[in-house]
Amino acid sequence: MFVINCPHCNEPREEEEFHYEGEAFIARPAEPETQTDAEWGDYLFMKKNPKGWHWEMWGHSAGCRKLFVVKRNTANHAIDGAWTLTEARAAYDAEMAKI
Amino acid sequence: MSNLTFNPVMQSPLHHFNLKTKQQHVDGSKGVWANEMPLLGYISLRGNAQNALFTKAAKKALGFALPILPCSLISTSWGCIYLLSPDEWLLVCDRELRTELQQKLEAALVGIHSQVIDNSGGFTTVFVQGKNASDVLHHCTVYDLNALTIGKVVGTTFGKTSVFLHQHNNGYKVIFRRSFADYIWRYLERSALPYDFGIANLGSS
Fold first, then answer.
1. For the range A72-76, what are the long-range contacts, defined as Cβ-Cβ under 8 Å and sequence gap of 24 or more?
2. Which of A10, A17, A65 shows the shortest C-beta gap to B157?
3. CATH superfamily entry for domain A3-98
4. pTM score, two decimals?
């Protein structure tokens, strides 16, 4: 169990109020019709699934019902921060550019 | 066939508990008192809080500025405005007032990206008070009630469902969907057993 700071409610809340919504910033192909089955399959199913820092979406399902981004360490549940989708985008892009 | 006629009657979702017949005058004899505040008007208002046109129009229609701080609420002359989410407000008023309020909002918000929905059939409210009121709610929800200051409304869990909670007159108002009313009332009664539970006569409040 851990506590997440909901950026929309602006206060820490119990994990029980939230719902995990999967990896963050997966771009949906702009033209799904032109995708091969393999490419579409990769989009749907091939997630990063790292051991370590992971950018993921959470939904505050019992509270404000908004989605937001959490950077969480999947190995020890440490949380680096929680941001709205717009706020997190720049930090995510900067981090991905380094890799 | 049958001569039964369809004659719908408005009932609160806790009607089957006959709370009215069981209610008592509130005194110090019980740790927790609760009762339903039945059949209020609930209007859901959605719009962009950053859009000055929207907030101005809403203020004109309601007579009060919409709360925009996270988890905040304001009391108004006709009821209460709760901020449930950055772009969603719940207006609670007497049932008779809701049509007028909705029409005023709709008229003021013409041409502005927004939504006004009468949700009065969808919600109900229970008022919990007494010296052990917060103890009972601590059994029901994961939210730390010490953080629930006056003027704040939070959406949180209640057993396996979710509710909106805020402080009101030395007690708490619990606002929830009518489909879970039976579950929530039984959960509350059960949680209150150790503290002695009474059904309060809320009078006209």
1. A74/A50, A75/A51
2. A17
3. Folate-binding superfamily (3.30.2270.10)
4. 0.91
